[in-house]
What we know:
alpha+beta
Amino acid sequence: MTSPGPEHLDGRHRDTLRQIFQHPTSHNIEWRAVMSLLEAVGKVSAKIGSELEFLEPPVGKDIDEQMVVDLRRMLGNAGYRPS
């Protein structure tokens, strides 16, 4: 079994990957760039309150109905509701 490579990542994601692996360690890697990379390579975990979900990035820009339901449940159970 081969490990996935960065070929399917865009240039920004490959740059972030390089920054993460560079030595000496870079001290200016942006959080949003890391999140974008993690979303591009697979599922992202979200822990809200006591609940943990593994969210799979959508194919397009919008999340599906099931993810909305899951987020509503997680946020609601943690006490987050719109005012």
